Amino acid sequence: MAGDLNALPMMLVRRLGSGALTLLFVASAIFLATELLPGDAATAILGQDATAEGLAALRERLGLDRAPHVRYFEWLWHLLSGDLGISYGTKSPVAALVADRLWNTLRLAAFAATLSLPAAFLLGVSSAMRAGTAFDRGLSAIALTIISVPEFFVGLGLVFVFAVHAGMFPALAIVRPGQDAAAFLRATFLPALTLALAIAPHVIRMTRSNVMRGLAGPFVEMAVLKGIPRRTIVWRHVLPNVVGPLINVAALVLAYFIAGVVVVETVFAFPGIGRLMVDAVATKDAPLVQACALVLSSIYVGVNTLADIAATIANPRLRNSR
Amino acid sequence: MTINGAGSDSVGQARVRRHSRRSTLRYAAGLAVGTAATALLAPFGGLAQTPRKGGVARIATEITDATATLDPSLIFTNTDIARGFQIYNGLVRIDEKLAVQPSLAETWEPAKPDGTEWVFKLRGGVEFHDGKPLTAADVVWNMQRHLGAKSESRARNLMAAVKEVHADDPLTIRFVLSTPQVEFPAILSFPQLVIAPQGHQNFLKPIGTGPFRMKEFTPGGASAFVRNANYWNAGQVHLDGIELVALPDPTARLNGVLSGDLHFAMTADVTAVPLLDKSRIAEKLYVRAGQCACIALQCDREPGNNLDLRMALRLLQDRQRVLDGVYKGFAQVANDHPVSPTDPMYAADLPIRPYDVDRAKFHLKRAGADGIAIDIYVAPGIGPGVIDQALLYQQTAAPAGVKVNVKQVAGEGYWNTTFRKHPFTAWHLNMRARPDHMWSVTLQTDSVINTTSFRDPRIDDLLRAARAEFDERKRRQHWHDLQKIVHDDAGYLQPVFPDYIHAKARSLQGVRAHPTAGLSDFLSGEGWWLAT
Fold it and tell me: Looking at CA atoms only, how far is residue A266 from chain B in angstroms?
């Protein structure tokens, strides 16, 4: 992370610029990929029943009879004027479909992050402070075990124990219209826990190694010589120095919770944006695929930019340089 | 069952008698009397339990919801169909014995002796959800959406023989056909041919005459329905509501029922049966059917254009092993043609082709195909158990020196990029209420998706003759001959017809498993109730 607080606006502008370019690149790549896939929306929608006339009529109505570059620039033009278009499959506005699913995904991500991040950071710090002890080694072994199990397996295991046998939580994270917060939390507890378990070991390990690195710094030696208690050293001196990389870890975790959880969404039948995109790819619903890709890559770019800003603000050296 | 209460039972039977007098629709005649009498008792295990009022049943369908629609003419997936039948009714329905039963139409009859004109009489006093009365004009408007070359309706091919539709009076509709169709009423049971109010085009806010009204519907999300207190068969609507969600993942659907989150999940794998049998809150619901899930061999190109080779390959199917090994007994033996023993037109006297390696070797030699290697293309989700079928076929074909290579491809886009593009590809089709509904798209020589590219003018002639034949005995003979031709000469490597297995909560009562499953109205919630 380069730059001090004064350079922050500049960095923001640069980041937004490169972010916009990234988005354009992603959108073009996705468009190209959907074009390269065999079949189109018309064949996907009509399926086994497709007749030549039926396909021609549907292609004409969807505008698929025009050349790909014409459709691409039309889509881009509409996008710039804030119109995400109409889904081929459901014939409803893409913006509403995506917003609905994104809201679900964001809520699940927030829930999973609440379950995993604070606990994982604490465990990571404690582990670093007790490096080499039985606690450290035990935690490390457990973390490695959980990392090695695929997350859908963890999910199915949780369903088996907590839903089918104990009946404590629902097996399906069905989001119903008009559901209150408590019902939502209950419905999404198992997927949130699955996500939390999938990510916590990584966070614990990253935290531990960063704190260990900080502990090896010369300023820690100085602080020890001054007689500052070890706890104070860690919390006051080490953590602020390693918070940058940790915020980046947290950002990656959040981005993963939002964009990379299709498998967990499938196991729990959770209506998130990942499954929307997979379904849209299956039906070659180009406007919907592109909108999902744009939203997901915006989140990646946005979360990472925010993380850099937060790291800059949190670092005492950068904070005091004004 | 649409017949409501004791009073209308006699009406139902009178109608049935009239049909048998005209020698029409023996499908309906022979079976419907039995159904009318037992339908109210059968679903409850013969016990005359009183259905409990109230409760919301939660059901999960199978097909992903990315193309969700409530426009009747575009309804396609079993999710659309299940939603559609909450809201809409058709003129007729097909019951679980495959008989045509009245729904919005109370009676019907051929208006010309050759079956080229049909008259349907509507039930009086039926109201749409918005309070408007149902009239013949509404029916005509709906039907016309399926007619003509420009129509985008999924039922356009089904209705291709319909030339005109008229309203004779506010309760009478006349269909004029270009060719005779003695089974025309059965066509009107298709899920696309349901009735919305004339001119109503906002299908995000659908209006119908059905047992439930739409409460919530977002394409791709869970949908909710509430009871239509004004329903014309209100005595059979016991639930307060229905919630429906599409869950493409079979494990998620099964877990939903096993854990009590769902009351019904459409289609479970045979491997789920032991779990369901063990569960205290869930159970299986299965029905013998005629769904086709098998390998299609293309007859118009190498190597399948040789009858000896087709014969040899079909002799190498060990039907019993497929039935026991792949389907754990939840299937019926098939005879290399797509009419199942569940269908009243099934030719029971055709001997089942045996597993015979020696005869297969003889035909292979005659075809000059000793030691032939074939590639079979399969894909996940294309027919239950077909991948395992192909793997088993690899073993049963090996003793004759046939090397089978099973190639698994992606399920997405399968129908347009793989199916029939190679000499051997997996095929799946749900059972239809009448074999003609299937044969007109898979075996007629000019059909668009001739499954095995088998073109034989005898088939067209026999189909035409069967469609014009009111005498059931003669029609049965035509169907016998049709099955024999396909059994002898075509390219269906069809060892079995898999049953439909569903998962349901023990508390859910009144569900009648249907042999046409996802194409029928069996998830409409009519007659369902929740025991405590």
Answer: 6
Interface contact flag, A43 B413, Cβ < 8 Å? yes
Pairwise CB contact (< 8 Å): A271 & B204: no
Paired with B374 in beta bridges are B404
Residues β-bridged to residue B176:
B117, B164
Kindly report the CATH class assigned to A2-37+84-321: mainly alpha
pTM above 0.95, yes or no: no
The 3-state secondary structure of B3-28 reads: CCHHHHHHHHHHHHHHHHHCCCCHHH
Question: Between chains, do B429 and A48 touch, taking CB under 8 Å as contact?
Answer: yes
ipTM: 0.73
Distances (CA, A) of A155 to A165, A192, B262: 14, 10, 18
| pLDDT tens, residue by residue, B334-344 | 999 999 999 99
Q: How far is CA A308 from CA A17, A247, A250, A295, A302, in A?
A: 15, 8, 11, 20, 10
Contact A177 B222 (CB under 8 A): yes
Residues 6+ apart with CB under 8 A from B173: B91, B105, B119, B120, B122, B136, B139, B140, B143, B165, B166, B167
How confident is the model over A29-73, as pLDDT tens digits? 888 887 787 777 777 777 666 677 777 877 887 888 888 888 888
Inter-chain contacts counted by CB atoms under 8 A, chains A and B: 141
- DSSP percent split of chain B into helix, strand, coil, nearest 5: 30, 20, 50
Euclidean distance between CA atoms A276 and A175, whole angstroms: 14
Query: How far does the CA of residue A258 sit from the closest CA of chain B (Å)?
Result: 18
**What are the structural domain ranges in chain A?**
2-37+84-321
* pLDDT at site B50: 86
Per-residue pLDDT reduced to its tens digit, B41-82: 444 444 457 899 999 999 999 877 667 889 999 898 889 999
- Spell out which residues of chain A touch residue B252, defining contact as CB-CB under 8 Å: 171-172, 266-269
Using CA atoms, how far apart are residues B500 and B268, in angstroms rounded to an integer?
A: 8
**CB–CB contact B67 A89 (8 Å):** yes
Mean pLDDT, all residues of chain B:
88
